[in-house]
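Before surveying the methods themselves, we first show a specimen of the format, giving the amino acid sequence and backbone structure tokens:

:::
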Amino acid sequence: MRIRLRDWRAWFIVIAAGVVVAYAAWPTREVPVPEIPRPGPSAFTEREVQMDVAGAARRVELEPRSAAAWGEYGIVLRAYRQHPEADRCFQVAADLDPADGRWPYLIGTHLADADPTAAVGWLERAARGTVPAAARETVLARLAETLLAAGRPADALAALGADPAASPPRIRLAAARAAAAAGDDRAAAEFLGDLADYPPAARQALLLRSEICRRQGRTSYAGYLAGQAADAPDASWPDPLADPVRSRDLSRGGRLDEAARLLRARQPVEAERLLRPLTGDPSASDPRAFVGLAETREAQGDSRGALEALNQAVRIDPKNLAANYQIGLLHFHFGEQLWAAGKADEARAEFREAVTWLDKALTINPDFGKGLLLKGAALHRFLGQPENGLALLRRFVQLRPEDDIEGVSKRVEAALRKLGVEEDGEAVIFADLFGAAPANAAASLLRHRPNIEIVAGMNLPMLLESLLGREGLSARELAQTAVTAGRESVRDVGEVIRSALAGTKAAGGDG
């Protein structure tokens, strides 16, 4: 049967229309967008925070297939510690744009501390993805650090590339840690190189060298390195992907935390800018904001402005430990300045005021170390109460169960400074056991305090001889006197008595 041309054309049109309809309908077959996670109504009490979260959620509603919108919403939720909801947003963002490494990275870094094994997969995905060039080093280092925490040092080293020794400092530090964990101390030492010269790496690099030396039996040098680590700056690595999360927190607590970070980074003007809105309102009622404002004012040389802010903090909360201590600290500094200017009477008045406020701090917390140190220094050096001052300083430097060499070294150094012992000054430090933490901590100070003496094996006769006979002696002479007294006081009492009895019997027999 012959098909008429007109009928053929009609079928073609119908078929073509069907293709168009099918093509037009294809987008509607995409996987549906997940439900937008929303924290409960009681999650946020501050109006500004509520508006911030609602605004980020609204963008997701308007652009439900935008990875950037989901990721930004996740950042906002992470900033306000809504972690399950934030992780869900990052997962959707990672699914919508599998090539972007930012979102799996933010999931992995959150999991790393609690569950490094689970975090590894996300961080590996981040390392395979695209991240800003400035963040590449951070991503690789965090992956290696997490593999180490998961007990996989060989994989950690492999994740850092073919030549970690020629890489930036953070990569080299991670490589050194991985090599040391794998038992290759020589490679670890090579990776460490000059990392102690980089502030963010210095402390960990020195502690790792100390650990390697201790494993090699070089305990004295290990203690010395631990002391160097104690003096290293407390710096942190920048994180181009995670740092924006912290700065995104608009809550009162978030601003306080960010201001504290800026102060540590020596940016007091920026810190004050964050704190002013929290303290400028006459109804402001958070003492922490005023304590932080005082720190920013002090960092800019405005001690009187700092004192005014601290007094406001104490009016809000008389039992605020930080405010009471810092008022005492400011009066101590005022006293030091007056003392240096030759105004002894005015200086003593400031030191007495300092002690008054430090007593308040110690009433709140009797074991507050900084309070013990400062009050002890005031009594010992300036207020004519040396024995009372030394008693407080002894409490400050005593070893606690949780202490390590670094902690003890810091406190001994602080005590020496408050006692007025300059770096080239003389002092004698007594410790219990040779080779134990207190002695090693003191030994670590010899690097920058060459004139101190350290006597281990302390006993009571040694201390009494040193305290009673110290006048006119140098530190070296006093240490020698202490060692002699300590040795002479160690006696076998039974042998002494038996010798005495034998001598008495012999004398009686001769008679």
Notes: Strands lie at 427-430, 452-455. The chain has 26 helices and two strands.
